[in-house]
Q: What sequence folds into this?
């Protein structure tokens, strides 16, 4: 029987929002899976834009290949949280972790929060 546990994003400090500092690939680290391919992370990410201008956000989901690993979203200015990743699944390779990173059109104005349901 599977075990579910809710965990913080590994790029977060105690569950706090992660400021997206990167403006190009490879982006700011948001989360890294474990190395096991049998542990699956169900990832939920939300973004907020604190700027006065809408900003493009790119999530690199498990890799940096374009277009295979990229999720692009324009986050509206000063308008609350937006669901960016709605529970997509990601796991390690059996010997290495997979990483979710992000970059935005402007540094330090888009923040990402969320959680992982780890299924093992």
A:
């Amino acid at each position: 029987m599977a075990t579910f546990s809710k965990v913080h994003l590994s790029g977060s400090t105690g569950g706090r929002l992660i400021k997206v500092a990167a403006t190009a690939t490879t982006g700011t680290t948001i989360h890294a899976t474990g190395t096991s391919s049998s542990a699956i992370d169900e990832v939920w990410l939300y973004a907020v834009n604190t700027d006065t201008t809408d900003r493009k956000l790119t999530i690199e989901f498990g890799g940096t290949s374009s277009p295979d690993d990229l999720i692009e979203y324009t986050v509206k200015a000063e308008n609350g949280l937006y669901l960016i990743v709605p529970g997509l699944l990601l796991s390690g390779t059996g010997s290495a972790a997979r990483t979710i990173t992000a970059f935005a059109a402007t540094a330090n104005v888009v923040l990402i929060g969320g959680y992982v349901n780890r299924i093992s």
In short: The chain has a mean pLDDT of 96.
